[in-house]
Amino acid sequence: MQSSPHPVALHVEDLHKSFHGKSVLRGVNLQVPRGSVFTVLGPSGAGKSVFLKCLANIMKADAGRVSFEGRELSPYDSVAQEGFRRRCSFLFQSNALFDSLTALENVALPLEQTTDLGKAEIRNRSRAALSQLEMEDFTGHYPAELSGGMQKRLALARAIVTRPELVLFDEPTAGLDPLRRNAVFAMIAKYQRQFHFTALIVTHDVPEALAASDRVALLNDGRIGFEGTPSEFSASSDPVVCLFRDSAQALSDSLAEIRRSNPMPHTL
Amino acid sequence: MLTWLGRQTLCAVTEIGDFSLFTAKSFCCVAKTKGLAKRVARAVHEQGTICLPVILIVGVFTGLVLGLQGYHVLSRFGSQGLLGTLVSLSLVREMAPVLAALMLIGQAGSAFAAELGIQRNTEQIVALETMGVNSLGYLVTPRLLAALVVFPIQTALFVILGICGGGLSGSLLLGVDSGVYWSAVHRAVEVGDLSECFIKSAIFGLLAMSTCAYQGFHADRNSSAIGARAVSACTTRAVVLSSILVLVADYVISSFFV
């Protein structure tokens, strides 16, 4: 895939974050093209979720600049932050659904609280969002009554109901089986094309991310170690990329070596 | 020792400032929160129904005990006819606002702190903020406004039941003439006493629910406990601190009225 011609939706410059003296982000630089599916890959503990939370101002970065559509999002500029929140949605790893509200109420909540739409319009838009995600039969169910995959779809319905321009996905496939992982990535790609939002995903699921993304980046040791298209990632000879990308092959080689050096004793 | 004392004082001052700011911000959200009336009505219903049985039981038994003890003390001076005065003034001026507040803290306050603690732990509060919803306005403001209504109503109920309980033990069990009892009640309670009662209960309601809200809302701040333990720790802190605050506030307000 060629490099994207889209203008930049999100621009991150030299982002730093540390906890109790331990640096997690050490100068992250990234440009996310508008209307693309951009995935940040990285091993567990690389700081992917921290990176996403710094972008959404859930955590305050120690240093660095984040700009959305050309406007800098200073954590202390409440007007810019409020504007960003209205145009951005965040899909939490834990889904963060309201357990005392039904599926329909969960989806309607951001519309009720942040828009001036009438009750009927809110109900229609919430129902439409749920039916687009094949959840129309579960509008009266509470999150605890839904399966993990359904909860993920419900969280996505809530994230897209406000028609955001940017959706941040924090490990959307965490804890899901391979089939459900594929389904979630397919769902993101499908709705990104339908609603034309920019999707920024952090995950460590390499094959699914490569299949669903327009661009990928590798966050390692607090910095972006690689950025490019999925085909460039697949062809890269960068040792860090190779280590992460070919981890399954490396495991297979290690196991073969173990089997060779410790043959199974013959049993009767 | 001096360093420790200084650090603790600074922590306490910071916490008091933060708590005051939290409460003020919660009230400033009134104009900005959508659907507030509906949420306040729901909170009034929740707080009211949760606490009603306890208020009924404690109110009646407090009156019964006051009648019993009061009769025996007054009979030493041959003043059994003042039983109505003793029971009604004790309840209206002190016992009903304080005991009703403590019962409400134990029931509605603890439930509120635990609910907010769980919402903080499961990222529901952060999710609200990322959606652009004012979390204080949506979660805390309706409960604080409801407390300003529920606490005085429950206190009034406590007073009525307590006086009836006192009358029950005094006239039915101990032989005080019921006409004498009720006329003493009627003569003793003045508008100033009722004002003190309702001012106290409204202030206790505000203090108690904002303390519970503050503790639950910041359940993640306590570094010594995480997860379920953080929720239990914040609930315990909420109940203990708000009970202490109510008793301290009772002394301060009483000193203005006496």
**Which stretches of chain A are poorly predicted, pLDDT < 50 over at least 5 residues?**
1-6
Content-based structural category of chain A: alpha/beta
Task: Output the helix-strand order of chain A.
Answer: EEEHEEHEHHHEHEHEEHHH
Rg over CA atoms of chain A:
20 Å
What share of residues are in beta strands of chain A? 15-25%
How many separate domains of chain B?
Answer: 1
**Between the first and last Cα atoms of chain B, what is the distance in angstroms?**
40 Å
Domains counted in the coordinates of chain A: how many?
1
Which CATH class of chain A is shown?
Alpha Beta
> Mean pLDDT of chain A, rounded to whole units?
85
* Uncertain runs of chain B: none
The helix content of chain B is over 70%
Structural class of chain B: mainly alpha
Oligomer: heterodimer
| Arithmetic mean of pLDDT of chain B | 91
